[in-house]
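Repro:
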Amino acid sequence: MKVFRVSKPTFNVLTETNKRNLSVDSANFEAIMRIQDRGSGTYTITNALDSTTVTIPHTLGYPAFYQFFIKWTNVTAGTTQGYKPSTGIGGPGPTTLINTQTAIDASNLYIHFRNTGTADDWKADYYYYIGRDPFN
């Protein structure tokens, strides 16, 4: 499982073992937010102008909080970028020709992958968390 961590000032996120010195630790998200669902997947873009939407259902009945992280690999060139968080609108892409967009509504999380012109093959590894209202 991939882990997203942020340390408090003056602490090294790569070596810190005391959880009190971390601002965020995705391995312990249940302690700071309630998780409705989590998962991961891979999508491969194999040609120019390829586009698809991955739909991930949830049963909350309202647009929930979510976090989405993605790592791109240029299969043609053999290069990989590290995991990056998605902002939802125009999420991270390895080039201006490849990108993702994410959105959530009352029943689904949507991940839209789009290639607008590069001939290279790209692989997107992603993972996500869908949170629920802690007062429900």
